[in-house]
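> call design_seq(struct)
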């Protein structure tokens, strides 16, 4: 698991280096001439997904906590990076799976689902919407599916590279015209930021409680150790007194030795009683420290749950809005096609 998390961290780091739609560096003139052949609408160029890029590590952490396995996340992030998908689009896909798990329960096969969708030619932007209704994918891809997947990944990587360059040039032109570039997922980002802020405060409180509990437990164990040492010393004194009693030669010596043994026994009994009391107090303090730490943890969990619910609601609203927009776009395309055919028939 540690190795897998390191792999995920490295993969995520590589994905984060993939340029967001807003951060493509200037390219050589020849490359820009090729990119000029790629059509980018003004509407698309006016939307920046940099906030989704920023949120990707949080989205991955949420998915892991929701129950998505580390291996699945590594595969999805790797597949997205190999396909040239932006970190923002990767975040949308993973966030859609997290939201679906919360509504329908944990499922396996996210990575296989994403790969099959790409192999079937599905637009990567539509995968996040389709995830909600996906079935559990367990079977590996057939050789034919894998071949189709490899071809699609290669094609997507090149088309996304050219598309990003064209998008950068379009956005540059829009800025020159004084057009405002809007940030995508602003509300979702704000909800995640608020949840993270709440979680940070509660986790800090929980950390302090655990630290105090640990210190109390350490002190209690030290008191118990000292009590046991006192008891051992008392037993040694009692044993010495008994040996002196056996070695006494005169009645006076025996009387003194007997008195010493009696005093030693009395002291041993008192020390044992004190040790028992200190051990009991140490146990009680340790239990109280543990209880305080558990209460702090519970409180942090409840606050985190509320904050994450708000973020999840925001994600759900955004997904539904995106789905509605896609349906509207589809209807518009169908209407356009019908009008074209009507015009052609007339």
């Amino acid at each position: 698991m540690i190795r897998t998390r390191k792999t995920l961290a490295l993969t995520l780091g590589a994905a984060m280096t993939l340029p967001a739609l807003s951060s493509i560096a200037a390219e050589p003139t020849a490359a820009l001439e090729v990119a000029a052949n790629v059509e980018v609408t003004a509407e698309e160029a006016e939307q920046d997904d940099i906030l989704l890029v920023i949120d990707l590590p949080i989205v991955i952490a949420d998915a892991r906590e929701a129950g998505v396995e580390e291996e699945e996340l590594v595969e999805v992030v790797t597949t997205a990076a190999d396909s040239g998908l932006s970190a923002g689009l990767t975040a949308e896909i993973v966030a859609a799976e997290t939201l679906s798990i919360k509504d329908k329960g944990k499922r396996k096969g996210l990575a296989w689902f994403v790969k099959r969708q790409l192999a079937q030619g599905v637009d990567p932007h539509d995968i996040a919407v389709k995830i909600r209704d996906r079935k559990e994918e367990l079977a590996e891809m057939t050789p034919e599916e894998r071949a189709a997947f490899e071809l699609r990944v290669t094609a997507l990587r090149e088309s996304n590279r050219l598309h990003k360059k064209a998008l950068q040039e379009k956005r540059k032109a829009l800025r020159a015209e004084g057009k405002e570039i809007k940030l995508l997922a602003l509300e979702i980002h704000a909800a995640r930021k608020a949840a993270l802020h709440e979680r940070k405060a509660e986790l800090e409180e929980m950390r302090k409680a655990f630290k105090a509990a640990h210190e109390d437990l350490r002190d209690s164990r030290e008191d118990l150790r000292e009590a046991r040492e006192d008891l051992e010393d008392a037993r040694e004194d009692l044993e010495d007194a008994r040996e002196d009693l056996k070695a006494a030669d005169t009645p006076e010596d025996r009387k003194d030795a007997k008195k010493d043994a009696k005093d030693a026994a009395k002291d041993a009994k008192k020390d044992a009683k004190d040790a028992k009391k200190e051990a009991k107090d140490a146990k009680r303090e340790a239990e109280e420290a543990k209880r305080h730490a558990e209460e702090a943890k519970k409180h942090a969990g409840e606050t985190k749950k509320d904050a994450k619910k708000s973020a999840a609601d925001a994600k759900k609203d955004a997904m539904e809005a995106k789905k509605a927009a896609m349906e509207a776009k589809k209807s518009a395309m169908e209407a356009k096609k019908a009008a074209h055919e009507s015009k052609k028939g007339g």
